Automatic annotation (TrEMBL):
The lineage of its organism: Bacteria, Bacillati, Actinomycetota, Actinomycetes, Propionibacteriales. The chain crosses the membrane at residues 15-36, 105-121, 133-156, 210-232. It comes from the Bacteria. This is TIGR02206 family membrane protein. The keyword Membrane applies. It comes from Propioniciclava soli. Keywords: Membrane, Transmembrane, Transmembrane helix. InterPro entries: CHP02206_TP0381.
Length: 236
């Protein structure tokens, strides 16, 4: 199997194996390096921000192209309806334009959702000898990097107002995702049924009873990411 093959390599992914730990280390080192951007001029910070967004969008375009070239692009999996997919495009726009609602969404989804994805990735059997492995960690690492950069270098601070706005956007996204799921037979955001693979949702009641519990867990995570910044000065 080649590096760009759609078939998983003979060496499958191992949770917290050497390759996974190395990927976590690379993502962590990249996040730490962002602290140095505070010493840059406004023009330099703008270039870093633009570069991060370009890399974020570039890897997403590559992923769609790879799936299409290997015959694995389907509307049931690849529409930009996933929480992380919305954060890729919306968060990038927010970083470039300063839109506060999009920056808030990118912060909460990136720091909470993408960090969990890096630690417990859903990679099927794609190990380090597959391009999917590299793309996955690039995608989710950058999803964390963009809001972290905005926090450490450009003065962005999450607020309770932004937390509430993000929860409203997540609720709206769930409604839209459910309608799309019914139309194309997908399960975006897991709002139409539990995922077929093992997740923490397995411990919750059947659909639709688990939906408010899933939303409450998201609200708790959003609150936890807001508390450390409450009352701190910052820029929009």
């Amino acid at each position: 199997m080649g590096y760009f093959s759609a078939e998983p390599p003979e060496q499958p992914f191992r949770l917290f194996g050497p390759a996974h730990l190395a990927a976590i280390g690379v993502v962590s080192a990249g996040l730490c390096a962002l602290r140095g951007a505070r010493r840059l001029s406004p023009r330099g910070r703008r270039r870093v921000r633009t570069g991060l967004v370009a890399a974020l969008w570039g890897q997403e375009v590559f992923y769609h192209g790879w799936r299409a070239a290997t015959g694995r692009w389907t509307p049931q999996e690849m529409l930009p309806v996933h929480v992380c997919s919305v954060a890729v495009w919306g968060g990038g726009v927010g970083a470039l334009t300063g839109n506060r609602a999009l920056r808030d969404y990118a912060y909460y989804v990136g720091v909470m959702g993408a960090t969990m994805a890096v630690l417990t990735p859903d990679l099927d059997r794609y190990g380090p000898r597959s391009v999917r492995f590299a793309q996955f960690f690039a995608s989710h690492g950058l999803l964390v990097a963009v809001p972290v950069y905005l926090c450490v270098a450009e003065g962005y601070r999450p607020t309770w107002r932004g937390a509430g706005r993000t929860m409203a956007l997540l609720a709206l996204q769930g409604v839209v995702a459910h309608r799309i799921n019914r139309a194309v037979g997908s399960n975006y955001v897991f709002v139409s049924r539990k995922p077929e693979f093992a997740t923490a949702l397995d411990a919750l009641p059947p659909w639709p009873a688990y939906l408010p519990l899933m939303y409450a867990a998201a609200a708790a995570g959003v609150a936890a990411l807001t508390v450390p910044f409450a009352g701190l000065p910052g820029r929009p």
